[in-house]
Amino acid sequence: MDWVRGKEIGHGGFSTVHLATPAKTCPSDHPPLMAVKSCDSALSSSLRHERRVLSELGECPRIVRCLGDSLTAERGGEELYNVLLEYAGGGSLADSLKSRGKPLSEPEIRRHTRSILEGLEFVHSKGFVHCDVKLQNILVFPRGGDEEVKIADFGLAKRAGERLAEGGKQGGFEWRGTPMYMAPESVNGNEYEPPSDVWALGCAVVEMATGRPAWGSRAESNAYALMIRIGVGDEIPEIPEGLSEQGKDFLIKCFAKNPKKRWTARMLLKHPFLAVDGALSVEEVARDCGAEFTDPSPRCHFDFQHWVSTQCSRTSWESGSLSPSSETDSDPSFIAEHAASEISSDSSSGIDRIGELASHERPNWEHSEGWATVR
């Protein structure tokens, strides 16, 4: 498709973005206005990767549409690689939030979050991970008096399960994405899978609700300190007090430190916070989605009706692990001691596992050589 480059409307770490219009020779079914991402052809691996990912994903109403690509000869003999995209007249959601100068209302947060999740669920179902979900990569499309949002910028996307390149990186890691949106498993283990997109979505929801980054404004100034906060301990981003109880529970499901216990995009789409009609309870959603972690959290000291001790359950007796073989074995004091020894054994194995991960050497955060640049 022939097109004409217009004024610059943005730029990133790998490319610049201009307005573009179809040439007069193009068929009338092309949109009257497009966005074109361009970079030097010799440095276009990231942009070409984005084009391939969008091509493999195919059409989705919650993802910015790709309209083709081309090579152009610019002034001075420079050759540019270009990717033509659907134009978002409202800019990014980050721009929209900044221009209004206040957080979004809860109905707006619900609507935008549902749209982003629908896009993420589609991306994950196709076997991809976005790896850079943030408000700057959520574009706004005005629709009459309303707004629609779509996911953009797939330059860092990867196949789910695909190992990242480790050559030449400090400690064998290649950090990618934006630090304030990174998940604990990405910081600790170089792991970028669908759950890491869900964590980033939670950070985006916090930002929509507060108008500030999920980890606070000061997090921008010291990325290394932020990585320690994300990766070490039980701290999660602060849950906004102004959100409804459903909204707070939604964020807790996004911020499970263990990615295996974090809710998936498909599960979150059925969460009561986003449900329009016939909302299910949180426990019903978990069962409906086939989740393994269906037991609700206890709400008081005695609310453990779904919890069964593996040390003294009926199954343990029948399997022989605690079956009384003599009068001595059936004595309550013997059973208590036996159970206590099993608990102690489990605890020591946990300590051993932590010991394997611990190190007496302090990390050298001052040495920057080998760190990957993130944006």
Automatic annotation (TrEMBL):
GO molecular function: ATP binding; protein serine/threonine kinase activity
GO biological process: signal transduction
Low complexity: compositionally biased ranges: 318-333, 341-352
Keyword set, alphabetical order: ATP-binding, Kinase, Nucleotide-binding, Serine/threonine-protein kinase, Transferase
SMART domains the record matches: S_TKc
Positions that bind ATP: 37
Protein kinase domain residues: 3-274
Ranges of Basic and acidic residues composition bias in the record: 353-369
Chain intervals for the UniProt region annotation (Disordered): 318-375
Annotated family: Belongs to the protein kinase superfamily.
Protein name in UniProt: Mitogen-activated protein kinase kinase kinase 20-like
Gene source species: Rhodamnia argentea
Phylogenetic placement of the source organism: Eukaryota, Viridiplantae, Streptophyta, Embryophyta, Tracheophyta
